[in-house]
Known about the structure:
Elements: E1 3-10, E2 13-18, E3 32-34, E4 40-42, E5 50-55, H1 62-75, E6 82-88, H2 92-102, E7 108-111, H3 117-121, E8 125-126, E9 131-132, E10 135-139, E11 145-150, H4 160-170
Parallel strand pairs: 5-6, 6-7
Antiparallel strand pairs: 1-2, 2-8, 3-4, 5-10, 8-9, 10-11
Amino acid sequence: xxxxxxxxxxxxxxxxxxxxxxxxxxxxxxxxxxxxxxxxxxxxxxxxxxxxxxxxxxxxxxxxxxxxxxxxxxxxxxxxxxxxxxxxxxxxxxxxxxxxxxxxxxxxxxxxxxxxxxxxxxxxxxxxxxxxxxxxxxxxxxxxxxxxxxxxxxxxxxxxxxxxxxxxxxx
Length: 171
């Protein structure tokens, strides 16, 4: 497995990412994660939808909380064929509890805790923390990556407007 350093920091300290991040124009790698009821979800089952894959370190942190709530608010405006999936290493039970408390019902939260398949397939698994880096991938209906944003400082929010523009360009 490839390792990449110098791409992201946490509070200014460099971290190592494991895996290979797909580039715009690449076929989106498939992966299996768990939903909040422990059922496996295969990314390939979502073909035919525009998918916004959002990776966050943990929903129980302030920035991830704000980010997921923001994407939940935006999800209702994007159309029925746009799916926003937020993936973290949080346990499914914690994600379910957090969604209920936060009123998040339009974003699907998924857990990569078991095998880190998403993290390694998308090059966002942080070696030092076994958490996911903050990143956003927009995948078109045919399963091709159309937008990639890796947030350089883990404690910062993504550029929401750029993500929403990428989604709008596919609608």
